[in-house]
Structures are given as structure tokens and as C-alpha cells.
Amino acid sequence: MILSLLKDVDISQGVNVIGPIFVLSVYGLLGLNVYMFCNCYLPILYNNKISYLPLSGPDSHIAWITQSMILTFIFFALLFNILFNYTMAWLISPGKLQEYYKGRIKGSKENPNLECKKKNRPTNAIANKALKACMRHTKKTIDKIDGDWEIRCAKCTFLDDMDEETGMNKLPVKPLRFHHCSICRGCVINMDHHCPWVNNCLGLKNLRYFLLFIFYLPISNLFVGMIIWHCRGDPHYRNYPMCSQIMIGIHIGVFLAMSFFNLWQWYLCLKGIPQIEYLQSLDMEINEGKGFGFPGICDNIYVTFGTKNIFKIFLPSFRPLPLEGLEWTLEVVTTKKKAMEVHERVIDMSEERDDIQNIEIDLTQP
Ligand SMILES: [Zn+2]
Ligand SMILES: [Zn+2]
């Protein structure tokens, strides 16, 4: 029901126009934050000798310099993480179906693929059973699915080949976990949602940057909020009436919104389910999306971040991910074949047994 309501509203055009404005406004506000920190808060903290830390003494000049340097370092470290992750979430492709057909679209003789170079790919040594099963397919390409997979996306029309029967462009396969975004006009692997603030879809390839962006944002709000609290009575602070009002509003608003949003997004990440699949699982008519997350939290973190190390997750990185996105479909396709073979063998061996019909194999489990 939720999905059918969303489908009726054509907001794609509006979001496409608003997107770049939102991106500019995010950079603008971050710039204003830096301007206020360097010109307003930091001089007040230094000149008024406000101490947060148990430094060597109330009149120690070195103590105030040290404190200012530490606060400046924390401020810029948070800012760097916010900027890096925001920019990556904005610029990195979430994993679009066109890209899996890349070689074919360009007419190149190379096999269309998105194989990562072997040396860069994380090993499956630390993965659990279900994830290891998926990782067996990492080197396979969209061609391996094309013959065995019936589902196609009627909205993606990037293939140039003509279908002889219909005289229309051939439709690309729509592997499992791909969802069509009407704003990006393409299918996206593990699509979470289309975010106008990053003017991009969030999918398998860029969700980690978005998660870290929304993780560092409220921490920065809290940190700068604490500094503003100490600076608010100072005469120098009153020299920036307009900017300080905007900053207070932004910091409180973003902190409240992002805190709850973080809980929700990280919960889904730990479960290994993107938002769209969660909504689909609520819609009783659609069962697709249930059961794709791995049973272990660590495996889901590994798929999203490419590492299980809790500290490395929060560091800025370009590390490759263990899965490319086609593995769930390949696993179902091969499991189906295997399941059929097993099924036929069982029938051959015991044709007269009555309980054959009771054999059921769940093909949706990865
Ligand atoms: Zn599509
Ligand atoms: Zn999109």
C-alpha cells in the first residue's frame, strides 16, 4: 500500500531540480560553520580562557594554546569526515544496472563485467557460510544471469539490441535486489532510497559513505553546540547576530533529525536490508526482499563496509566491497539448478513413494 501510494506521485522532476540546490546548500552551511568557528568561537575560547580540559594552570598561556589546538583539531577532523563521506555519497555511483552492461552498451568486444581486480578484493576467509556461498559468484558477470533469469526491467531502455519479435529495444534483466529509481531513471542494486540531499541514489556501492556522513554530522553538531554554549555571553559573539542564529537553528535541527535517522539507518544496515526492501516486506503482496540480509551482523557490516574491523569502519577509505551485487541472483539461479537436479534424482529413485510432493526448497534464501 505504501509503495502504491508513492508510485502515484511523480516527484522525480522536482527532486532532480532541487537536488543540486540541496548539495550547494550543504556545502554552503559547512562553509559557514568553518567561518564561524575560526572567526567567532575560537577567538572567544582563547581570549576568555575558557577551559574544558584539566591543563597545567589557570594562567598558563601554553594551556590555552594547547586547548585551542585540540579543539581546532577535533573540529576539522569531524569536518573532514563529514566532507569526505558526503562528497563520496554524492559522487560515487550506487551500483546501476547500466554499469553491469557497460561493455555491451559501448559495443566493446570485451566481456561486459564489473569484476574487481583480484588483488583488491577482500577474501572470504572471514565470512560465514551464507556470505561465503554468495562470494563464490563474485567473478561472474551479468551474462551468466541473462540466460537463466526471466525478470526484466520494463523502464530501463539502455540496451541498443532490437528484439526481433516485438521490434522494440531489448529489456535488460533485473537481477534480485535491483530496484528501479524513477529519479535516476535506472535500476540500482540494494537501493535504500533516493536522497535529494546528496542528489544521488543510495545503494550497495555508496551506502557506507552516507551512513558515515549521518554518523559524524550529529557528533559535530554536539561538539560545536557545546562551544556555542560557552561563547554565547561574550561581546564578540554578538558581532555575528545573523550567522549565530542560523548556526544555532541548524545545529539543533540537524542534531535532532539525524540522531533518530541514524538509529533507523544503522539498524537496517546491521540487518542487511535496504529501506526499499523493508517497505516491500511490509507490503503483504510483495515478498521479495525478505530474507536477503545475512544472519550475522558482522557479515552485513562486511558487505556494506568491506571490513569487519569496528575501528576501520569509521575511517575514510576507498576499500573495495566483497560483493558486486549480482551474487544473490547467481546464488538463487545455481541453487535452483541444483535443487531441480536433486529433485529429479529423488523422483527417479523413489517414483512410487507418496511423500515426494512434500519436498520444498526455499529458493529465496541466499
Ligand atoms: Zn530499471
Ligand atoms: Zn535515484
Automatic annotation (TrEMBL):
Its EC number is 2.3.1.225. InterPro entries: Palmitoyltrfase_DHHC (IPR001594), PFA4/ZDH16/20/ERF2-like (IPR039859). It comes from the Eukaryota. Keywords: Acyltransferase, Membrane, Transferase, Transmembrane, Transmembrane helix. It is found in: Membrane. Residues 173-279 form the Palmitoyltransferase DHHC domain. Pfam families: DHHC. GO terms for molecular function: protein-cysteine S-palmitoyltransferase activity. It is a multi-pass membrane protein. GO terms for cellular component: membrane. It catalyses: L-cysteinyl-[protein] + hexadecanoyl-CoA = S-hexadecanoyl-L-cysteinyl-[protein] + CoA. The keyword Transmembrane helix applies. The chain crosses the membrane at residues 21-44, 64-84, 209-228, 248-270. Coiled coil: none annotated. Belongs to the DHHC palmitoyltransferase family. The DHHC domain is required for palmitoyltransferase activity. This is Palmitoyltransferase. It comes from Euplotes crassus. The lineage of its organism: Eukaryota, Sar, Alveolata, Ciliophora, Intramacronucleata.
